[in-house]
Structure formats: structure tokens, C-alpha cells
Specification:
The complex is a heterodimer of chains A (about 400) and B (about 280). Chain A has about 400 residues and is mostly helical. Chain A is built from 16 helices and 2 strands. In chain A, strands 1-2 form a two-stranded antiparallel ribbon. Chain B folds into 2 domains: about 45 residues; about 230 residues, MetI-like fold (Orthogonal Bundle), CATH 1.10.3720. The chains are: A mainly alpha (about 400), B mainly alpha (about 280). At the A-B interface, helix 7, helix 8, helix 9, helix 10 and helix 11 of A face helix 1, helix 3, helix 4, helix 5 and helix 6 of B.
Chain lengths: ~400, ~280
């Protein structure tokens, strides 16, 4: 044959394909024809060159000069010196193929990491799973010395402290988002959103430090006695005011999840169509009525998504909580009592867990935490997506 | 009469909720200011030259510093960036340039999942993957844990930034006969450079303060360590150890360390925000 396609980068393939569509079927893609097609697409003068080429080297491979003039000349020395090399050889030594494979490898690494997380957690927790089964999550005795592992106090602690965090954080976060997008004077917008973003940049361990030395004494001296005085009838605020405990942990966590909830809520509010607002105002609504009827109602699903996303972050939160929750594996009704969470038991006990069953019990807690946060995050992502889909992503409101 | 009453009530409700939203915003911003104020007040007093140059002293002796923890953090973050950034950018390039298929969707979804994995779980996995194989704690294990946390952020930012580069730029490059890989490397990636740097630095700032994944990978160390194969101190770990200790001297050191760490992170974030974000392909955002 006179020659095959000169080179096989996907771009040139695309051009060849364009060309192939115009030709009658069953006709092989030969060198001069392919070149002619490529040339005409590229806008060079095809007629003259091809006729010269055909006149001089009928049936031979294209001359060096012509190869040089075409696209990949600098990178194809290996590939195009001979027409007799098999196709797989060309594609293996084609840099496009190599580059694409490298990028694919990186992408597969991301898949691989998540796969490794799952298999690693499953494998290393199998001992505890086989020994305790589902009872693991319903037993409330945690005594590593005697080999009793029941994770209920940790599950309870995680849920209750996250709920406290949500109760405190949601009104604040939504208020900030509404204030920034709908109410506040323009010059204040950026500073306030920047401030909430800064809250997100502070590491967890520093929140913990701040909470130990500032928040906990504040709780012990002012907040908890006050709650005990006026709300002890609910049964939720009883017992000695240690300062350390569920309430303190929930409060720190609330500060940490405010930025997440508030920035996503802002994103969701921004995509509410402007004409909805205008319509409400035109009907004579006050600004608050407009926000309630036009903005919040349209953004409802997205705000719920933002809250769930905050919950996902709160469930996995480790350091700050470990530092202030008191770390006692008991289930107490009072929110002032010390507790323990799934993440903090791993943080505290993993490095000193000696026997295999202990390690595997902690791994199983990790696995449960992983599964729950993944489900929560996916759910939240879906809810936010239903509101913001179809609009371009934006960094800030 | 009645209608005037209703009008007044509606107006008052409006004022009330405006005031409420403003007040709650003040609470949030006030909390931020309170945290920073305490950090600066408590940290600045203990931040001195020996803090930056000495290793921790035994309990009871005054002085000493966190120099080894600073070095440890630098080493762990260096390992994390060396492992995480190329993989993250590569995956981002794949998603943006070749990822309009089922595999692309799957990878995108996986990156989002990875982004939501609690940091303590990442620590557990790094323990299983590296520490158990090596049979001891090491700086390398800490670096791997932080790399896993960096990858999804870098991947998604890279993808977003590459997609902001107009398709016509790529077509122009193809029209000049530049092969696709070369277009991606020298033209698309170069155009999106500031945006990608932003993403990398934000990921860096995010993992710089992570403590939970280091607890049982890097483990901490009271002495100098220069080896990637040994347990090593890290700034956040040291802050944690000192904060929950009962000694006043250590508390002071913890505040100083916290101030250092926050300056590092907030400095990076602010720099990124005001320098690089202006130059993103999408324009100032």
C-alpha cells in the first residue's frame, strides 16, 4: 500500500474521519487521499501540492519535507520512519496515547484510594464483626480489658453532639446567608462572607484549644448554671456543671459548621431567579415577606441540603470534640454530662489499642463512621444539586 | 383603622427579622473576632526566638520550643504535596480533557466521596496501609494520610479551572497542528495556572492544620527527627498534646503554636484570595 495515515493523534484522526465521510465506502484511507483531506481542512492549497507529490512519489511513502510540514513532525520520529510498523506499535509510542494513559492512571488512583479505604476498613474490622455482629452497635459496655466492646455510647454521643451543633448552627448560618445576600448594604457583603470563610480555615485543633480555655470556663460559670436554674425541668440540663460535656462539644462543632452551611445556603439563595423577588415586591410585599415567600421557599431543598452537609461534617469532626466532650463512654440524659463520640474514641484509644480485637473494634467504628458520612454527603449533594443545577458554579455571592 | 394596624404589623415584622438576621450575623462575626483576639493575645506573649529554635524541654523546666514540630510539619506537608498534587492535577486533567464519559462521571463522584471522608478515617486507612506494613509510625505515613486528603480538592479545582479555559483556545492550538498532549501541557494548563495554584494552596492550607490523621501515622516526637521513616513531631499534634496537658507552661506553648499555625494557614488563604483569584481564567470572582 502506498501508505497509511501518517500519524495518529486524535486530532488528525478527527480530520481523517471528516474526510472519510465524503469518500465512497470500502475505499481504503491511503496516504495521498488522507493528506489531501487534511490539507483542505487546514486551509492550505491542496491541489497543487498533492499533484506534485503524486507525480514524484507515486506509491512511495511521503517525503520528509512533507512530514515536517505536518503537525506532529517533532514528536513522530519513532512513529513515521516506516510504514511497515504495526498499528499497536504506533499507538504505544505516540505521546498522546502516553499522556492520556498517565492522566487516566491518576484518575484511576482516585478510584483506587476509595477502594482501598473500603477494603482496608472491611478487612481490618472483620474480627470484631464476626465476634459481635450487629450487637456491636447496641451494646453499651465498653471495657477493653475484659474484651467487651459495645459502641452504643459512641453512636449516641456522635448523634447528640451533632444535633446540638445543628440546633445552634442552623439559625445562625441561615441568618448570615440571608443577611449577606438579601439585606446587607453592598460594602459589607464581602467582609462578612470573608469572615465566615475564615472561620472555615481555622483548624479543628485550634477550635479545641480555644474551647478548652475560653468556652469551657464560660460554660461552667455562666451558661450551665443558668440553664440548670431555668430549664432543669426538661431533664436535659441536670447534674454538676463541669463545663466539659456534650453541650460544650456541640457548641464548638456549631461554630465549625456555620461556614459550610452558610456558604452553601448563600450559593442556593443566589440562584433564586431575580424575577421571583421582583414579582413579590411588585405585589406589595415587604422585604421580609419577599424573602420568606419568594426566596426561602424556592431555596428550601438547597438549604436542607446545606444543613445535611453540615451534619456530615459534624459527624466526622474529631479533634475539637475530643478535647471538650469529656471522653466518658456513658449514656446520660443530661446534655451537661460528659460523653464520647465515635471519632474521638478512635483518636484517643487507637494508638494504645494492643490486642487485635480492640484494634478491629475501633476499625469497625471507623467503618460505620465512613458509611454514615458518605450516605449523608451524597444525600446532601443531591439536594443542593436539585436547586443549583443548570446554573454556572460561582465562587462567592 | 384595621388596615393601618395590619400595615404597621407587617412593617414591624420586617424590621424585626432584618434586625434578627443582622444581629445573628454580628454574633458569628463576633465569634470569629473573639477567637482571633484570644489567639493573638495569648499566643503573641509566648512566641519568641527560642520557641522557633529549640526542642521541647522536660516538664518543669521553663523555655523550650517547637522547632522540631515545625520541621516535622514541613516534612510531612512536603511529602503530602509531592504525592498528592501530581495525582490530583493528573486526575483533574483527565476529568476536564477526556472525562466526558462514564468513567469520568465515576471518578468525579469518587472524588466528591473522598472529599467527605472524615479525617480520622483517613488516618485509620493510612495506618493500615503504611504503618502496619512498615511496623512503625513514620513521617511518610503521615504524608500519605494528608496526600489522600489533598487529592480530591486539587482534582476538582483543576477540573473546574481547565473547563473555564475557552474551547476556542484549544481549537486554535489544534489548528496550528499542535498535538493534543502538548496543547494540554503548554496551553490549557498554562492558561489555567493561577486557578490551579489557588486550588493547590487551598488544599495545602486545609491539610496543614489537620491533626486527626497524624495521631497514629506520624505519631509525634519530642526530639529532632530528620528521617521520613521515623515518628516525627508536627505542629498540630504538638498543640493537641500540650493543650490537653495539665501544665501551664505547655498551655502557653500551645497558644504560641496555635498562633503560628493560624498565621500560616490564614496567610496562605488570604494570599490566594487576593493575589491568584484575580487572575483566574474566569476573571475576578
Amino acid at each position: 500500500m502506498a501508505g497509511q495515515p501518517l500519524y495518529s493523534s486524535s486530532f488528525n484522526k478527527r480530520i481523517a474521519n471528516v474526510d472519510r465521510d465524503r469518500r465512497p465506502k470500502n475505499q481504503a484511507l491511503t496516504g495521498p487521499t488522507a493528506k489531501k483531506g487534511a490539507m483542505s481542512v487546514m486551509g492550505a492549497a491542496p491541489e497543487r501540492k498533492v499533484s506534485i507529490g503524486e507525480a514524484r512519489n507515486e506509491g512511495e511513502r511521503p517525503r520528509l519535507m512533507e512530514v515536517m510540514r505536518t503537525s506532529e513532525s517533532r514528536n513522530i520520529s519513532l512513529v513515521t520512519t516506516s510504514n511497515n510498523v504495526p498499528t499497536w506499535y504506533r499507538s504505544v509510542f505516540n505521546l498522546d496515547f502516553g499522556f492520556r494513559s498517565l492522566m487516566l492512571l491518576a484518575a484511576m488512583t482516585v478510584l483506587g484510594i476509595v477502594g482501598l479505604i473500603v477494603t482496608e476498613l472491611l478487612q481490618r474490622s472483620s474480627l470484631a464483626w464476626r465476634k459481635f455482629g450487629l450487637h456491636f452497635f447496641f451494646g453499651s459496655e465498653w471495657d477493653p480489658v475484659s474484651g467487651a466492646f459495645g459502641a452504643l455510647p459512641f453512636v449516641y454521643g456522635t448523634l447528640v453532639s451533632s444535633l446540638i451543633a445543628l440546633v445552634i448552627a442552623v439559625p445562625l448560618a441561615v441568618a448570615v446567608a440571608v443577611f449577606v445576600t438579601e439585606m446587607c448594604p453592598k460594602p459589607l457583603r464581602r467582609p462578612i462572607s470573608y469572615a465566615t470563610e475564615l472561620l472555615a480555615a481555622i483548624p479543628s485543633v485550634i477550635y479545641g484549644l480555644w474551647a478548652i480555655f475560653i468556652l469551657v470556663p464560660l460554660m461552667r460559670v455562666y451558661v450551665e448554671p443558668w440553664l440548670m436554674k431555668y430549664f432543669s425541668w426538661t431533664g436535659l440540663f441536670q447534674g454538676p456543671a463541669y463545663g466539659l460535656g456534650m453541650l460544650a462539644a456541640g457548641t464548638v462543632m456549631a461554630i465549625m459548621i456555620i461556614p459550610i452551611i452558610s456558604s452553601i445556603t448563600r450559593e442556593v439563595l443566589v440562584v433564586v431567579p431575580q424575577h421571583q423577588r421582583e414579582a413579590a415586591l411588585a405585589l406589595g410585599a415587604t422585604r421580609w415577606e419577599m424573602i420568606r415567600m419568594a426566596v426561602l421557599r424556592n431555596a428550601r431543598a438547597g438549604i436542607v441540603g446545606a444543613v445535611i452537609l453540615g451534619l456530615g461534617r459534624a459527624l466526622g469532626e474529631t479533634m475539637a470534640v475530643t478535647m471538650v466532650i469529656g471522653n466518658r463512654p456513658e449514656i446520660a440524659k443530661s446534655l451537661l454530662a460528659p460523653g464520647y463520640t465515635m471519632a474521638s474514641v478512635i483518636a484517643n484509644e487507637f494508638a494504645e489499642a494492643t490486642d487485635d480485637l480492640y484494634l478491629s473494634a475501633l476499625m469497625e467504628i471507623g467503618l460505620a463512621l465512613f458509611i454514615v458520612t458518605i450516605i449523608v454527603n451524597i444525600l446532601a449533594g443531591l439536594m443542593v444539586w436539585t436547586v443549583t443545577r443548570g446554573t454556572p458554579a460561582r465562587a462567592n455571592a | 383603622m384595621h388596615s393601618r394596624y395590619i400595615k404597621l404589623r407587617r412593617q414591624l415584622t420586617d424590621y424585626f427579622f432584618t434586625g434578627l438576621a443582622a444581629g445573628l450575623s454580628v454574633v458569628v462575626v463576633g465569634t470569629l473576632i473573639a477567637i482571633f483576639a484570644y489567639l493573638v493575645i495569648k499566643g503573641a506573649g509566648s512566641l519568641n526566638w527560642s520557641f522557633l529554635t529549640q526542642t521541647p524541654k522536660p516538664v518543669g523546666e521553663p523555655g523550650g520550643g517547637m522547632a522540631n514540630a515545625l520541621l516535622g510539619s514541613v516534612m510531612i506537608l512536603g511529602i503530602a504535596s509531592a504525592v498528592g498534587v501530581p495525582i490530583g492535577i493528573g486526575a483533574g486533567v483527565y476529568l476536564a480533557e477526556y472525562g466526558r464519559n462514564r468513567l469520568g462521571k465515576l471518578v468525579r463522584f469518587t472524588a466528591d466521596v473522598l472529599n467527605g471522608v472524615p479525617s480520622i478515617v483517613v488516618g485509620l486507612v493510612a495506618y493500615g496501609l503504611v504503618v502496619i506494613q512498615q511496623k512503625h509510625f513514620s513521617a511518610f505515613a503521615g504524608g500519605v494520610a494528608l496526600a489522600i486528603m489533598m487529592i480530591p480538592t486539587v482534582t476538582r479545582t483543576t477540573e473546574e479551572m481547565l473547563l473555564l479555559v475557552p474551547q476556542t483556545v484549544r481549537e486554535a492550538a489544534f489548528g496550528l497542528g499542535i498535538p493534543q498532549w502538548r496543547t494540554t501541557v503548554s496551553i490549557t494548563l498554562a492558561t489555567a495556572r493561577s486557578g490551579i495554584i489557588t486550588g493547590v494552596m487551598l488544599a495545602f492550607a486545609r491539610v496543614a492544620g489537620e491533626t486527626a490523621p497524624l495521631l497514629f501515622t506520624a505519631f509525634g516526637n519530642q526530639f529532632w527527627s530528620f528521617s521520613a521513616n521515623q515518628p516525627i513531631a508536627a505542629l498540630p499534634l504538638q498543640i493537641f498534646t500540650y493543650a490537653i496537658s495539665p501544665f501551664d507552661e505547655w498551655h502557653r506553648q500551645a497558644w504560641a503554636g496555635a498562633l503560628m499555625l493560624v498565621m500560616l494557614i490564614v496567610g496562605t488563604t488570604t494570599l490566594v484570595r487576593f493575589v491568584f483569584m484575580r487572575r483566574m481564567p474566569g476573571g475576578a470572582q
